[in-house]
């Protein structure tokens, strides 16, 4: 795991990415779009609180907004 | 209204007003609302005479502001008026938030239970203004003129000239400075052609003040999406005289007249409170709101305060309360400029500091509004997700925004009014008002800190552990600072205790030192508005004197805004 608290981690950082991805899809696969959106919102809030650092969150918001073309 | 008889203040004969207006007033205040009257009283306390012109002959019509914040009470306390306001008002510190049919959580707004005043009292604006008006009538330095409507201002020459209309006819009023406290529809603002920029929110709110005997406690209750008003929000507050404030969100597309029909309002109230509570309607109105401000609050010798300068939504009670903080900031500066001890440029720091505060208030108010009334389906999903989480996981309560309630603005530490100094990791930061904690009075009786910093001038708080640590040089330096043209009084806060007098504040146990985050020997410079301007680890009279010059605009250029 990369130890960094000052910047958004952009290198792969999960021990078992497949496992998390499957769990994520599993959690909301059967939800109608509106409920899936609510699920995502709750998840984001939980994780944002865990991250805690505004600069990191702001960077994540910027990248998620996909304003820039892929390098 | 049922529980309130409006006072009618007598207008003075035109001949008398004309005779009194042949000489130039130092300061004319346009508008005798809660902000204009507080301004006049604050200036009087600093020895500055004012003429107050108000178009009406009574206090605020109907029901508007009710929540008067701690900092506002502290400012009124300097004027000797916090006691009567407290005696009449309903004290409260707690808020409770509901979502749909359940209670989510409650919170306490009082940061320190040892503080002299609660987080809020609820007191109707008409009671507030009546108390201020009576005090202004008693004050010889205030010339309060009812039924005097200002219709024009001429800023071309010196003095400034106001055109005033009275029931008997018009007259002209010359003044060195004009303070525009004439509210959201400010005539002065329009006369000067100034832009009032910001956002208008597409929503209506219905206010119903009702009289009832109800079992609810003195706390702020806020509902998101309640069963009695699906999809909307609602708010409940206790006021004095068995009056309760209900505030219902209505939405944008409404039939105003129908909503205002007493029977429609009554059935709305019954849906909220149940069928068995008997009540009378005292006051009903529908309001919309804006979040906006002037670009600058100083235009030459015209200074804007209160709603004339800025407007916010009522969520957070930041309207009147921020207007009183404008007064707090402007009073001492204008007094120093008027008697020539500080250059006029000091007034630019009023502009910089209170524009900063207005932006903070507008930011809070805008964010609260967006949370309460999500603008899109997606933002509503996020809002509801937040509320849903807040019911079961306490961390999410921090995101819930039913209004961030008014507190004192911490002014920028590196702005023109402050010097900064060493950073504080905890305690009172530079730019914040001193906390009003228990402090022994000069005569040894229990009192509070702001009573010792009576808000008249600059004070240097020197935190020591035993007075013997002070040298004869130190004592000479205190005397020199106290004797300067802008005096700085040194108040020795002694952790070791000792006896109290005008210069010594025993602080056994270090309650104050710890609250400030002050080490032994540390020195804090406090402005006349009781805000911390600088702090240093040790007392150095040269630094105090140069900080004073900078704060008063007497050395170098005043920092441009935002610098
Ligand atoms: C529903 C509602 C609830 C609110 N709740 C709160 C709250 O809980 N707490 C809070 O702090 N704020 C609250 N506010 C905001 C608060 O009411 C205002 O911020 C406050 O009234 C501003 O005071 P002011 O003295 O600047 O202006 P105003 O109260 O508008 O006073 C302006 C004065 O100027 C006079 N005037 C106007 N034009 C002229 C003229 N041309 N010549 C002479 N005189 C003139 C008027 O007669 C009036 O007396 C609320 C507002 C609303 C609408």
UniProtKB/TrEMBL annotation, chain A:
InterPro entries linked: DUF2783
One short Pfam name that applies is DUF2783
What's this protein's name? DUF2783 domain-containing protein
Q: Which organism is it from?
A: Oceanibacterium hippocampi
From TrEMBL, chain B:
Keyword vocabulary terms for this entry: FAD, Flavoprotein, Oxidoreductase
| EC code | 1.14.13.127
Gene3D superfamilies from the xrefs?
Answer: 3.30.70.2450, 3.40.30.120, FAD/NAD(P)-binding domain
- Keyword Nucleotide-binding recorded: no
- Coiled-coil regions listed: none
Q: Name one Pfam family in it.
A: FAD_binding_3
The cofactors required by this protein are: FAD
**Mind telling me which InterPro entries this protein's record contains?**
FAD-bd, FAD/NAD-bd_sf, RIFMO-like
| FAD-binding domain boundaries | 25-360
List the Gene Ontology MF annotations in alphabetical order: 3-(3-hydroxyphenyl)propionate hydroxylase activity; FAD binding
The protein's name in its UniProt record: 3-(3-hydroxy-phenyl)propionate/3-hydroxycinnamic acid hydroxylase
Please report the organism this UniProt entry assigns to the protein. Answer: Oceanibacterium hippocampi
